């Protein structure tokens, strides 16, 4: 299949290299011991890459667990017939406990009420509800303080058909230069874990901890950003070769010449000083190209970097092609990815738009069609 056929001739699309994701998982697995399991974090539509194809690839490459943030994300996996254990790492309303049990999802519990509801539906359906308890050790976002977490664990242990399988916490500063607070959080977590030795899966490590403090791997690690080929921050130092998996691409759909004095896009924030040839790419902030890249960003055309002129619009942006010979309608425009010898990765886009790589990847809208590549061949397309 040709790319154009796979995307139904749509002018903006995402390509996801599933081999890159498998490669990254294999590299990450080399850091952790054999007895540590890997939970692939596929929340937020797998950081914009597409939850289902990424989850399937991650499992094939050796992930034993999947991590999502909400019940609905978990249901999406089950409806795609993905059966491996999946942990809802965020909050679930107790009213939806029956669905958690029905879809055989593992949930994070911070209240007795939710635990009781899970146990009740598990008894009714003759199933087991598996739960993890989240300890707040200093992130102060979700989770219970140590003493309450221990009390909750003891209470949940008494409920029928409910298994307390995991104990976890989340680190606030693992991706910073100074790891001292992360180490304090880890020590506090270990103290809680010591008083609950009957809980089998203890887990703490996101990508940053996994890369730079592998002693925190414990029974399970929860990498997200590193699966997709990026480091959590510039302060992550481990020598590891990760491969970015996602490209965002478009086509030149219109070309014209500007005379000196002609302005480009809303507000005419860029004005031609000399005759300038410009190309239109039908990709804008509604697709995930940050508006902050107005007059700052770059794209690749014919293997060359070239600037975005004027404001990025909702669905379109204008680029300078004066110095690129022979540009034609239909030429590929790379916003994130490689072309020839050149590459613009999501770290660079994030830096130019003064945000983090995570936000760039997650910000690629679900309506942009994704196509999936394996061994350089298209294996599937989605046209949502
Ligand atoms: C998102 C998330 C992760 C993954 O973090 P990365 O920095 O992307 O590796 C791990 N654990 C929890 C609880 C998360 O919410």
Task: Please give a structural write-up.
The protein has 384 residues and is an alpha/beta fold. The protein has helices at 3-6, 18-31, 43-47, 51-60, 71-79, 97-102, 112-125, 146-157, 180-195, 207-212, 346-352, 357-362, and strands at 12-17, 37-41, 65-68, 86-88, 106-109, 129-134, 162-168, 201-205, 220-221, 246-251, 254-258, 263-264, 270-271, 276-281, 298-301, 304-309, 317-320, 332-339, 342-344, 370-374, 377-382. Strand 5 (106-109), helix 7 and strand 6 form a beta-alpha-beta unit. The longest helix has 16 residues, at 180-195. It is elongated.
Give a short synopsis of this structure.
The chain is of the alpha/beta class and about 375 residues long. The protein contains twelve helices and 21 strands. Strands 1, 10, 11, 14, 15, 16, 17, 18, 19, 20 and 21 form an eleven-stranded mixed sheet that branches. Strands 2-3-4-5-6-7-8-9 form an eight-stranded parallel barrel, surrounded by five helices.
Task: Give the SSE layout.
Blueprint: H1 3-6, E1 12-17, H2 18-31, E2 37-41, H3 43-47, H4 51-60, E3 65-68, H5 71-79, E4 86-88, H6 97-102, E5 106-109, H7 112-125, E6 129-134, H8 146-157, E7 162-168, H9 180-195, E8 201-205, H10 207-212, E9 220-221, E10 246-251, E11 254-258, E12 263-264, E13 270-271, E14 276-281, E15 298-301, E16 304-309, E17 317-320, E18 332-339, E19 342-344, H11 346-352, H12 357-362, E20 370-374, E21 377-382
Parallel strand pairs: 1-20, 2-3, 2-9, 3-4, 4-5, 5-6, 6-7, 7-8, 8-9
Antiparallel strand pairs: 1-10, 10-18, 11-14, 12-13, 14-17, 15-16, 15-18, 16-17, 18-19, 20-21
